[in-house]
Amino acid sequence: MEANETLYWGMNEKSFLLLMHLGQFAGLIVPGAGLALPIVMWLTNKDNNERIDQQGKYITNWIISAVIYLTVSGILTFIFIGIIGLIAVAIAALVFPIIGAIKANEGEVWKYPLTIQFIK
Asked: Integer distance in angstroms from the first to the last C-alpha of the chain?
């Protein structure tokens, strides 16, 4: 670690961004934490770092989009197609944060596919 390197929650930028993406899995341990943790991480540091702000927006947009997709799929389970939608969103919710974390650790920015852009 460089002497002048800025730390975010005690981590360098790459580690913080990696954790911000993987923070979506916190909901597996504490209900709701997977929604809140990445957003809180972004909001507390968005003004300090442009990359954190950019990736935080992508993550937050994905979280909002996934909740919408899950809600619509849940409603559509009455006509079977919703089950396919639930499975597809569940797979995307597992795969996308992992890809985002890997890209963040490599210093790249990755925009989640299928995301509705609410926050620009």
From this structure: 32
Give the pLDDT confidence of 95-104 residue by residue, as tens digits: 999 999 999 9
3-state secondary structure of 97: helix
The ranges assigned to domains in the chain are 13-105
Phi and psi at residue 11, to the nearest 5°: -125, 155
Helix axes 50-75, 81-105, angle to 10 degrees: 170
What one-character-per-residue DSSP string does 5-57 give? Answer: ---BTTB-HHHHHHHHHHGGGGGGTSTTHHHHHHHHHHHHHTTT-HHHHHHHH
The model's pTM: 0.91
The number of angstroms, rounded, from the C-alpha of 111 to the middle of its chain's C-alpha atoms is 10
